[in-house]
Amino acid sequence: MTHQLLEHASLAQFSVQNDCLQIGGMALTRLADRVGTTPFYAYDRKKITERVELLRQKLPREILLHYAIKANPMAAVVQHLAGLVDGMDVASIGEMRVALDTVLAPEKISFAGPGKKMHELRSAIAAGVIVNVESQQEMELIAQQGRDLGITPKVAIRVNPDFELKSSGMKMSGGPKPFGIDAEYVPVVLKQLGLLGLDFMGFHVFSGSQNLSAVAIQEAHEKTVQLAIQLADYAPSPVKLLNIGGGFGVPYFPGDQPLDIAAIGVNLQHLMQIIKQQLPNATVALELGRYLVAEAGIYVCRVLERKMSRGQVFLVTDGGLHHHLAASGNLGQVIRKNYPVIIGNKVQGATREIVSVVGPLCTPLDLLADQMPMAAASVDDLVVVLQSGAYGLTASPTAFLDHPPPIEVLV
Fold it and tell me: Which of 7, 52, 291, 309 has the CB geometry, 3.0–4.6 Å to 248, for a possible disulfide?
């Protein structure tokens, strides 16, 4: 029953006709025929658009929406989102090139992450991208590259606050971290930034990811705004941009409840009044990745064999952890949990059975579903992993055992 409730909630993002999953208005079987091979990822542009529209409705109109490309860097997805959001956040020179190839102006793109190489900094400065400074050393390198190029680099200080985003799947702040500059040291860095003649844009504070608690996110937003106001007193010029991070989660597992976006919006509306008074020149941005794309994507593989082993049914497929590491449980889960998995061409299915879905790799970790109830499947049926629009293909070890990579399509 718990799995069926999760399956129903996950399928709410899509429609079902004649017992077959529909994505992008197309039956899964027809889509599979058009793709011509399995496995593949499919992303629904309409669902992505609807998610952005939801945020526009529930959040203050002044809030900028930025897309964190690392969630899904497929060029077609990024191009689609570029027409919907206000900016892009990148974490490598490769992602920066994808973002620069969109309609967005370079100053709408920010480049974060520790360990940026000299040529990456040089490229970002030359392009006019905002560089999120992660250390004093990096700031000095930026200044040097700016002098060499005859360009004044645009920079924001990434701050490592002394608080964390509670209940997060992955905590990015609080305590010792490789990300950003410790908040207590930022005033010193801001003074040096002014002496170096850099174009100070503002602050970037990213506290955590995959959070389903509106209360925790509200608290982090409040602390972030107060911290930015305090640090602004030391800035060489007024704050123009305050990136308050993201962390908006999506439900993957039994018991997960969707995030209350409306409650977050009400709290942000209150905070915007404070920001207007204390930081009148600042625009506020939310940096979202997973929340924009995760529920708009599926991963599809094909059943190659039904195998019985000591009373347990295994569906052996042509997909696996090399394509979808997160679904296998090997992308940060302490205790492995099943993603929502269905037989996409037999969604309801009159006959149900308990099965495990595995891939073709020579490791017991190659497990897409462990003892899950689903429609009885046969060879050539299509196994679908829902909630697969974020941290799928590019977060997976595609070179492991040298199987061919899956195709990606935007429909």
Answer: 291
| DSSP per-residue codes, 254-281 | TT-----HHHHHHHHHHHHHHHHHH-TT
Specify the pTM. 0.94
Per DSSP, helices labelled H in 89-244 are: 93-100, 118-127, 136-149, 186-196, 214-232
Residues 281 and 359 in one domain: no
Residues 178 and 263 in one domain: yes
* Partners of residue 367 on adjacent β-strands: 358
The bridge status of strand 109-111 relative to strand 241-243 is unpaired
Q: Are residues 249 and 270 in the same domain?
A: yes
CATH of the domain at 397: 2.40.37.10
Question: Among 18, 362, 364, 402, which one carries the catalytic annotation?
Answer: 362
Q: Mean of the per-residue pLDDT values for the chain?
A: 93
Phi first, then psi, for residue 233 (nearest 5°) are -65, -25
pLDDT tens-place string over residues 26-68: 999 999 999 999 999 999 999 999 999 999 999 999 999 999 9
Q: Are residues 361 and 249 in the same domain?
A: no
Active site residue 20: no
Cβ 280 vs Cβ 62: under 8 Å: no
For strand 352-358 and strand 367-375, is the pairing parallel, antiparallel, or unpaired?
antiparallel
**Cα–Cα distance, 128 to 233 (Å, whole number):** 26
299 and 284 co-located in one domain:
no
Q: Sign of torsion, CA 94 95 98 104?
A: negative
Query: pLDDT digit string (tens) for 257-292?
Result: 999 999 999 999 999 999 999 999 999 999 999 999
Cβ 113 vs Cβ 135: under 8 Å: no
The C-alpha atoms of residue 243 and residue 257 are separated, in whole angstroms, by 26
State whether 273 and 141 are in the same domain.
yes
Place of tokens 């040529």: 119
Cα separation, 172 vs 160, in Å, equals 8
Which residue's entry shows tokens 């149900």?
A: 352
Q: Among 269, 311, 261, which residue's Cα sits nearest to residue 288?
A: 261
| 3-state percent helix, strand, coil for the chain, nearest multiple of 5 | 35, 25, 40
Cβ contacts of residue 103 below 8 Å, gap of 6+?
82, 83
Query: Which 3 state secondary structure label does DSSP give 57?
Result: helix
- CA dihedral in degrees (365, 371, 375, 377; nearest 10)? 50
Q: How far apart are CA 51 and CA 90, in angstroms?
A: 20
